[in-house]
Each structure stands twice: as C-alpha cells, then as structure tokens.
Please model this.
Amino acid sequence: MFRRLLCSALAMVPTLTVAQTFTLTTVATGVPDIVQIRHAGDARKFLVLQGGSIRILRAPNSVDVTPFLETASITTCAFPDGSNGTLGFTTGGERGLLGLAFHPQYASNGTLFINFTDGRGDTVVARFQREAGNPDRVNHASCAVVLRIDQDSANHNAGDLAFGPDGLLYVPMGDGGGSFDPCNRAQTLNPASLNNGTNCGVDTNFTGLGAGDADSRALLGKLVRIDVDGTTTKLNAAGLCGAMDLPAAADSTVVANYRVPAGARPAESGFDRWRRSV
Model:
C-alpha cells in the first residue's frame, strides 16, 4: 500500500526540463592544485595553491611570475605569548595552504589572513601585511599567529577562511580526522571532556611551540568566529568552551563556536548576502 502511495505521489510531480549550454574557457595554466580564488576589491584575482603559494591572475592567461605569498618565505612568526618561532609547512592530501581572507578594510590597512598546515601537521591561522610600496607582494616578516589548533590526523583539516557581514573572521574546522570522529572532538565544547586515549593524546610537539594549548582540540568540528579587531585575548568571551583561554593574537578574540556533525570537513563556506546566513 505504501509503495502504491509513493509511486502515485511521484507520478504527480511535474517534470521540468531546462536546456542549458555551458562553455569552459581556460584562464590560467601552470598553477596546480588551486583550492580558492579570492579578490581584494579590485581587478586582480588571487589564486590560492595548496602547495604553498598565492599567485595573482590579472587577465586570462596572465599570471604574475612572482607569487603574492610563498609559505617557503615565511621564516619566523610572532606567537601570542610574545615569542617568535618557525612553523614550517606541510602539504599533500588534505593539508597545505588552504585559506585566504582579506580584511574588510584591506584597501586601507593592507591586512590579510591565511589558513595553512604547519610543519607539525597542525592548523595555523596567521595575519600578514602587504609589502609597503608593493601591493602585489606580502611582507612575509609580518607573520603573526592568530590561532593554532592541534590536529589529530592528516585528514579532515577543513581550511577555509571568510569574513562575514558582521566583520568577524569565520574559521570552519574539521573534526580532527580519522573515520567518524574517533577522538570525539566534534561532540564536545568542553576541554575537560576531550578524549585523551590512544592516538588522541596531547601532542607535545604542539604544546612545546609558542605556548600551544592542548585545549585547542575542543575547537575541532566547530565553526570558530574571531573578532580580529578586538582588544582582548579571551577565547571564552561567550562562555561556550568551559574554561578555555586559547592563544590568540593580541588584537583577536574568538567569541563563538558551533558544532558540526561527526565526520564533517567543511573545506569551503560562504555567506548569503541577502539572508546574511552561512
């Protein structure tokens, strides 16, 4: 009986056929593994390459030879604890240079942010300034860590960055990797509830650099929202993560985070400009 009802209902659904023709045009070659295309409010297109560089596309088949940014040129970064150190870089699989976002006032302040995998396999969100006198080049020495998150595995890193209509920087995070969130990262907002069992324990390579906080694992499987123009470093401003006070840049505050389903890896996000929703 149910099958007959279902078939009857399907038979009542009108069939809509729309003929569409698409034409693909090559606009750039020699730029492998593009994960994002961004703009800074002008005619340039910024191609984010997973392998560790950002190239400028000015017109079809016109890509600048000199990269806008190269992870290989990032020698040291300033950490929130006041120290400086070398982060390194890892690429391949779901790791690499994964996200780029220009500050809403980039034209006047020259500030941008990238999301990448460091040499230890952990997530880094870092702030940079464009080079003085050269709008087509980043000042690599201006690297300042905004947020570091300890990753459990090589997959489900996510990696996108985007400013919302509220002026905040959104960082979608995967669940830390493995199959079906074996370390239970996406299922808790409380660092005290983190799974520290086999293959899920604290990574001393992470905590030993720049005062990395093991509680950052509670941000896996969440959508993190950062006030990059704030004045405090308190992560727990909204009271959402127990007693966490994770490292953030001196002018950045993580003010909220939201859970995503286990196994999720939100590599890309976007905002509906009309509904102002993610």
About this structure: The CA atoms of residues 2 and 225 lie 46 Å apart.
